[in-house]
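Hi Y.,

Following your request, here is the sequence exactly as I used it, all 286 residues.
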Amino acid sequence: MDKKFVSIKKAGIYGIIGNIFLLMIKATVGWICKSQAMIADSVNSAGDIFASLMTFIGNRIASVPDDEDHNLGHGKAEYIFSMFISIAMILVAAKLLFDSITTLIIGSELHFSWFLVVVCIATILTKLCLYFYTLKTYQKYNSILLEANMKDHKNDCIVTTFTLLSVLFTLIGIYWFDGIVGIGISIWICYTGITIFLESYNVLMDISIDDKTKDLILDIAHSYSEIKEIENIVSTPVGDKYLVFLTICLDGNMSTFESHKLADSLENTINGLDKIYKTVVHVNPV
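Below is the corresponding structure, written out as tokens. Let me know if you'd prefer a different format.
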């Protein structure tokens, strides 16, 4: 198992441990103090545990090398499990939205407690540590599983900050803000879930390589004076990279050996780009 998958595995494990700790203290204090925002936050932590677990399992499958049944490896497992994470986030958001609106209509039973303040601060500090650790790893390996977890940790910091505000507002007799925060949390979770879902969906539906990388490939191809024409360029995702098929036209009088040598050189050069898994160049005579 290479360094990328080992790092993602660690991020998943740290996320599971941190979120189990937060779930226990938030659910307990939220239920005792009747805080809808804190209860919503604890449900969010339960979703975070699921997300970290999906990261761990998805990374484990994606790390399996190519075999006879999966010639291009198992990289798309990252996107399948990221989609699981996004669906779970959307379902959690729908339940929280319903509960928060109900609380806003009926009224909040929230009572101020310094325990709520301590839990909020502990959550923010824990999530900041997880966020910066995951961000550092994501910047190094550009994994969608890490991106999903990174966004989740960042969102939790923002969400819990507003939960802390709702608790502090009770000191001046403002109780309705608790339900508003619960609604805001649910909308934020839903938005993040939809964003991750669409990104995963696009890859699983074989979205083409981005225009910037495509232009880089074309610039490399055009740098070969022997290439008379580029007929087409086709790409398909393989994990977080792309398999590229390029059809070029060369002088029909060029020997087979020379044309294949040029094609090999072009493939090796394009393979040096960060987002390229493998390049296949097809030669047509002009």
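The longest helix spans residues 3-33.

Thanks again,
Q.
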